[in-house]
Write a structure and sequence with these properties.
Blueprint (H helix, E strand, L loop, with lengths): L1 H17 L4 H12 L4 E10 L5 E11 L3 E8 L7 E5 L2 E5 L6 E4 L12 H4 L4 H4 E8 L3 E8 L8 E7 L5 E7 L5 E14 L2 E10 L7 E11 L21
Antiparallel strand pairs: 1-2, 1-13, 2-3, 3-4, 4-5, 5-6, 7-8, 8-9, 9-10, 10-11, 11-12, 12-13
């Protein structure tokens, strides 16, 4: 009788165990819902100063796989032709007048904005972070993420994910010390076609830059295939030829 009772209790417990949140699986779905694994897109970055003045950049972006991404500056004229490349944790900036790529870091910003290079050249979250916890809340799932290496721009992330869309709503980015570095706000879900439906607007603010705000607008996002050659240092001087 005791053995039968134990078995019945085990069966009762099965649905609860099966219903437990799989944070790693949710994060994988967030990555693919945000964008295809390989895509092209245009992005406009606007930096807004406390006095209301603005500076805008337009970038053409190509991403392949989980950790390769290139961004070409189309405007302003002073930055046209600059190219950034990210391969895993390694990043470079190519400036035509210099004629060779130079190393840059994730916490620097090629635009001088609150968006750093890790934000502008973002790879899959699953490539950089492990999920430490997943908590179900009223309208969202809270994922607590820990960086896989010390090379990642943010040591920890708190990501609130919309339960239905499985898209991020808010992400808080923290340093290893626990200091809140910035908050990312995902807004304006748009149907880009081809099964891609994601926020078209990303805004960020930071307690370290009071009164400043940066906005990233997405357009023309679509699946695409590119040769591996495009994501190499030797090809950076030729990236601009792709947009002529």
């Amino acid at each position: 009788m005791k053995t039968l009772l134990s078995f019945l209790m085990f069966l009762v417990a099965l649905p609860a165990a099966g219903a437990a949140l799989d944070g790693a699986q949710i994060l994988q779905k967030v990555d693919r819902n945000l964008e295809p694994e390989t895509y092209e897109a245009y992005r406009k970055l606007t930096d807004i100063q406390p006095n209301g003045s603005k500076k805008e950049y337009v970038l053409y972006t190509m991403k392949k796989g989980r950790d390769k991404i290139v961004a070409l500056f189309l405007t302003p004229a002073s930055d046209k032709g600059r190219v950034t490349l990210r391969l895993g944790d390694n990043m470079w900036l190519y400036i035509p007048d210099v004629g060779r790529p130079v190393r840059i870091t994730s916490l620097q910003s090629v635009t001088g904005s609150i968006f750093n290079n890790a934000d502008i050249l973002r790879i899959d979250y699953t490539a950089e972070y492990n999920v430490e916890a997943a908590e179900e809340q009223k309208d969202a799932i809270l994922l607590s993420l820990k960086a896989k290496t010390g090379e990642v721009a943010y040591d920890r992330l708190k990501m609130w994910v919309d339960k239905q869309a499985l898209l991020p709503v808010t992400i808080e980015c923290y340093a290893a010390s626990g200091l809140l570095l910035k908050t990312l706000h995902f807004r304006d879900i748009k149907d880009f076609g081809g099964g891609i439906k994601r926020p078209a607007t990303l805004e960020t603010d930071s307690p370290l830059y009071k009164g400043y705000k940066s906005v990233m607008l997405w357009s023309g996002l679509k699946k695409a295939n590119f040769p591996d050659e495009y994501f190499t240092l030797n090809y950076l001087p030729r990236i601009q030829e792709l947009r002529k």
